[in-house]
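Record 1 of the preview.
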Amino acid sequence: MPIEIINLSHEYNAKTPLAKVALCDINVKISDGEMIALIGETGSGKSTLVQHLNALLLPTEGKIQIGDQIIEANVKSHGLKQLRKKVGLVFQFPEYQLFEETILKDIAFGPKNFGVSAEEAEQKAREMIKIVGLDENYLEKSPFECSGGERRRIAIAGILAMGPDILVLDEPTAGLDPKGAKDMMDLFKRINEDFHKTVLIVSHDMEQVMTYCQRVIVMNHGKIIEDCNVHEFFQSSDLLKQLHINPPALLQFKDLCKEKGIEISKDALSIEECVREILKGVKR
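->
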């Protein structure tokens, strides 16, 4: 399900003394099946933008088209409930999305809310708990007995149970240890590739962006200042400096190699590719 955002602006507390422009003239297209990183400094407008994708916030100006659904400023929108089924938003803090007494009820809540029978909703919950890497034994637990990483997986399972075409994740690995963060990103990659979902990730972690994403959208002061593939983004040292972003460890390693006289291609963006380049240099 493609997304097209056209001249989107959003102002908080419009027409009051507390008015604040959070988004200004955003234009972007997202195709089916992409895995995209949305990055920028705190306050750049990332969270405001993603909340427009399932109409938690509505445009002050401009419009958004998601599939056949159009949300336009100053025009009453219909079918927002169905839109929220198609676009699943997972907040940074999973506690905001968990409220039932058991994990089974929590995951089944969304499908039941969209008219699925209780029996079918429970079956979906049993399927989704496995997809996110947890055992069925969890289903009778309270979500608040679980660790932060487990609660995040449960929140994702609840969104997936509704069958969205688009998955939007706001800082999904914040607070997780390195292994937990890797497992979570591997899960999103699998959801993108195996289930053909469009995945949009708001992230500050450049290692994850470089390893998992195909495209990078950069926001600053409510505007999109760059939109390019991940290879191009990490080759732009001036932009990284402008955004106060430390390059991923792999790029720092490549710079060290260059200082030692070993040139590694700009296109080598994995350990394996770098090793092959180094071996070629040693042979020469």
